[in-house]
Amino acid sequence: MAGTSAPTATEPRELIVELCQQFYAQGWVSGTGGGISIRENGRVYMAPSGVQKERLRPEELFVLDDAGEVLEAPERGKLSACAPLFYNAFRLRDAGAVLHSHSINAMLATLIHGSEFRVTHLEMLKGIRGTGYHDDLVIPIIENTAHECDLADSMAAAIEAYPKSHAVLVRRHGVYVWGKDWVEAKTHAECYDYLFEASVRMKQLGFDASKAP
Ligand code: ZN
Predict the structure, then answer these.
(1) Is 196 helix (H, G, I), strand (E, B) or coil?
(2) Four-residue CA torsion sign, 174, 116, 99, 7
(3) pLDDT one digit per residue (tens) for the chain, 213 residues
(4) Which member of 26, 163, 185, 204 has the greatest number of CB atoms within 10 A?
(5) Is 69 annotated in the active site?
(6) Which residue among 72, 123, 143, 160 is the active-site one?
(7) Residue 61 alpha carbon to ligand 1 centre in Å
(8) CA distance 109 to 33
(9) Separation of 83 CA from ligand 1 center, angstroms?
(10) Would you say the pTM of this structure is higher than 0.90?
């Protein structure tokens, strides 16, 4: 187990394996759900569907081109149903990495907000590119579907409608988060997760995180 220290790998295949172990430890990719995809030099690296992310090996990854065509496939395994969702952020935001988390904090945050997650005046806002302490951070929340791939169109529409957001929440499900590279995607995912938890816990204590103090 890699723990929560900075990854030591630099090659995308090894990086994904290491990051998945960290995300598993955080409860973001348990039960085979969630994961991270990295895009580098016109190649997209992605875990297959339904594998235990904490036991993933570098040779088990798919490699695709920018158009979504498979360049290298592992011996076993099926391409993830999340692929079109990861490609939304690659295509519409020029993302270098996209992370999908089934974090309990993200899921709970979608229960206490309507069509938008909103917080302000929290220090961790500064970890999100383009956002300061006094700003309103707004993330669109889309409704879940029975099959993950059916989220692609509503996720794309939400990305277009919220050009400042680096994430889309999915009701009763989790969150998609991206960044210009895997470092920024990881930082964004950690800061967003903190903000999701803060919003839920502040509500329990009678505070409204969406309003300035
Ligand atoms: Zn999911």
Answers:
(1) helix
(2) negative
(3) 444 456 666 799 999 999 999 999 999 998 888 899 999 999 999 988 888 999 999 999 999 999 999 999 998 888 887 899 999 999 999 999 999 999 999 999 999 999 999 999 999 999 999 999 999 999 999 999 999 899 999 999 999 999 999 999 999 999 999 999 999 999 999 999 999 999 999 999 999 999 999
(4) 185
(5) no
(6) 123
(7) 18
(8) 18
(9) 11
(10) yes
